[in-house]
Amino acid sequence: MSEQNVARVQEALERFATTGEPPWDALHSEVVVRDHDIMDAHDYRGHAGFARWLEDWAAAWSESSIEPEDFIDAGPLVLVYIRQRTIGHGSGVALEREDAMLFDFRDGKIASLDYYNSRDQARTAAGLEG
What we know:
Elements: H1 2-19, E1 27-35, E2 44-45, H2 46-59, E3 61-74, E4 77-88, E5 94-106, E6 109-116, H3 119-125
Parallel strand pairs: 1-6
Antiparallel strand pairs: 1-2, 3-4, 4-5, 5-6
């Protein structure tokens, strides 16, 4: 099952990168997004919450891209290391970071996405050491 989950995440991220549209059919209707990069952020729930998270994220940047670098099978979870490149909306400051996303599944669909700006924190959350 975990290899299938890795493939699901790869496909979902590829479609998002290609179309700019969330892969709605890959997201569980009760998907939860937890963005550990936003101080005091709340959980974003459901498809409407997922769309709101993307809007909130995009509001800060005039340009933004993510590039998956590694997909890690973490049992039922999938950990993805990403390289994020952004330009601040108001400041024009360019930023490049090494972030991570942790995906969990229900009924063959993405049920949760945790976004981390610390790969070590994401590894710990996935139950991986080192």
